[in-house]
Design brief:
The protein has two helices and no strands. With 65 residues, it is an all-alpha fold.
C-alpha cells in the first residue's frame, strides 16, 4: 500500500461537500493522527489494490479453464 501524506503547503486544495453522517463514517476509518486526506487516500489505495487482485485472480481462472 502506498504511503500518502497530506501536503497542503503550496499544493492545490479542494473542498468536498459531505453530509455529517458521511464525515463521521469517514472519521471512523482513521485514527486521530490522520487527516481526512490521509484516510481517503488510504481507502482509495486499498480499493485499487483489491481491484487489481480481483483482476489477477480472474485472469488466472481464465487461463486454467
Amino acid at each position: 500500500m502506498k504511503n500518502h501524506k497530506s501536503e497542503t503547503n503550496g499544493g492545490l486544495v479542494t473542498c468536498v461537500r459531505l453530509s455529517r453522517e458521511t464525515r463521521n463514517r469517514l472519521a471512523q476509518l482513521g485514527s486521530k493522527d490522520q487527516t481526512f486526506d490521509d484516510i481517503v487516500n488510504e481507502t482509495i489505495d486499498e480499493n485499487l489494490e483489491n481491484k487489481e487482485n480481483v483482476m489477477v485472480s480472474d485472469e488466472s481462472e481464465e487461463k486454467s479453464s
